[in-house]
Automatic annotation (TrEMBL):
The name this protein goes by in its record: Reverse transcriptase domain-containing protein
Domain of life according to the entry: Eukaryota
Entry-linked Pfam families: RVT_1
Family annotation (SUPFAM superfamilies): DNA/RNA polymerases (SSF56672)
Domain spans labelled Reverse transcriptase: 131-332
PROSITE patterns: RT_POL
GO biological process terms on file: DNA biosynthetic process
InterPro entries per UniProt: DNA/RNA_pol_sf, RT_dom
């Protein structure tokens, strides 16, 4: 009888739950999916982990010829150049309310604290944001990340099986969200992002990616053609972004000098410490990549890889975040 009551309870929970996080939590309670370890073994040395994370993606070289092309040209000379606009207090409040994470960054100021004082400090916060956008400088105090190492697999045996997640100051997230809104609005208006990129975009998801892919394959089948599919996944995608190349590509797509200078300031000379339990590593500087766990990271990655479709010929390309699917149909 108890078993039947539990079964009915969890069945109702799974049926009624609309939030993905709550849905997966319910699955774990039912033991339908396993619980991964949230922290790596304590045998890993904290400074070694931080050094590995800080150097991820640093061995990748860029093509100087490609860099020079993007830096010296623009995709559309008649395109309106993007420049940051000053934000209002209402926009700052809206961005503030979008942040749900309770994680506390290196400045030990939580989003809950900022929201509590916002009726008295919203003017000062708005001034700080606008000053940053106008000067092209991202505050150094907001560039210090606390990195949490999360296992990619159950019971990791080496540092390479860990993934870095950056916990950033709440003020950094507010500013990032305000910047995202302007960059995304411009990118959508100018059709900069690939139409078949389903990751990190409003009204897009894994569902739209699968629907597009299956639609192409079914269409090929109806025409009596065979299909071959190659699926690619970038290794350390966010960590491998070259800042110089990103800035050149943003210039190519119409982002003005003041904007790319701000992006360079945001990404440059970022400090990180890795924290595991009660242990904290020595701080190190990152010289490449975008912080995993940041608000800006996904849109910067999308802009960095927006030219991928131009490299693909004789097949259809579908994209979801850092994954690519190449579909080729042909007669038997």
């Amino acid at each position: 009888m108890i078993w039947q009551a539990k079964k009915a309870f969890f069945a109702d929970q799974l049926t009624e739950t609309k939030n993905p996080k709550a849905f997966w939590s319910c699955l774990r309670q039912c033991n339908i999916v396993g619980n991964k370890e949230t922290e790596p073994p304590s045998t890993f040395k904290i400074n070694d982990i931080n050094k590995y994370f800080a150097e991820m993606g640093s061995g990748n070289e860029i093509c100087r010829e490609t860099l020079n092309f993007f830096a010296a040209n623009k995709q559309n000379e008649t395109r309106e150049e993007f420049r940051f606009k000053a934000v209002t207090e209402d926009e700052v409040k809206s961005a503030m309310n979008e942040i749900k994470s309770a994680a506390i960054g290196s400045d030990e100021i939580s989003i809950k604290m900022i929201k509590a004082v916002s009726p008295y400090a919203i003017g000062a916060i708005t001034h700080l944001v606008n000053r940053s956008l106008a000067s092209g400088v991202f505050p150094h105090a907001w560039k210090i990340a606390i990195v949490r190492p999360l296992p990619k697999v159950t019971s990791p045996s080496n540092i390479e099986q860990l993934r870095p997640i950056s916990i950033l100051p709440a003020m950094s997230k507010i500013l990032e969200k305000l910047v995202i809104r302007q960059i995304v609005a411009y990118s959508n208006k100018q059709n900069i992002l690939p139409k078949l990129q389903s990751g990190f975009r409003k009204n897009h998801s894994t569902c739209t990616a699968l629907i597009n892919l299956f639609s192409d394959m079914i269409d090929a089948r109806d025409k009596g053609r065979y299909s071959s599919l190659v699926m690619l996944d970038y290794s350390k995608a966010f960590d491998s972004i070259n800042h110089e190349m990103l800035r050149a590509k943003m210039h190519y797509n119409g982002f003005g000098y003041d904007t790319t200078r701000w992006i360079e300031s945001y990404l440059g000379d970022r400090l990180q410490v890795t924290r595991l339990g009660n242990d904290t590593s020595e701080p190190l500087v990152r010289h490449q990549g975008v912080p995993q766990g940041s608000c800006l990271g996904p849109i910067l990655f999308s802009l960095y890889t927006a030219d991928i479709p131009s490299c693909v010929q004789n097949c259809t390309l579908h994209l979801y975040a850092d994954g690519s699917q190449l579909h080729l149909s042909y007669k038997p």
